[in-house]
Give the backbone structure.
Amino acid sequence: MGGTLPPRTGDGAPTVVVAALKDPDGANLDRIQIVKGWVAGGEAHDHFYDVALSDGRGVDPGTARRPR
């Protein structure tokens, strides 16, 4: 549930594995997101990446978000 990735020596983005299970007594999951947070110039920033959506919806590869 969080951590710091060391600087990469090669090209390309890191590989991330995601797994999720729904609580048997809870509501269905709507989406799985990767949240990137960082501090630059003393200001906090974040970016949300949708990686899976329910009900057969697909993620827009151009924005990494659900289609509007």
Summary: Residues 31-68 form one domain. The chain has a mean pLDDT of 84. Strands lie at 31-40, 43-53.
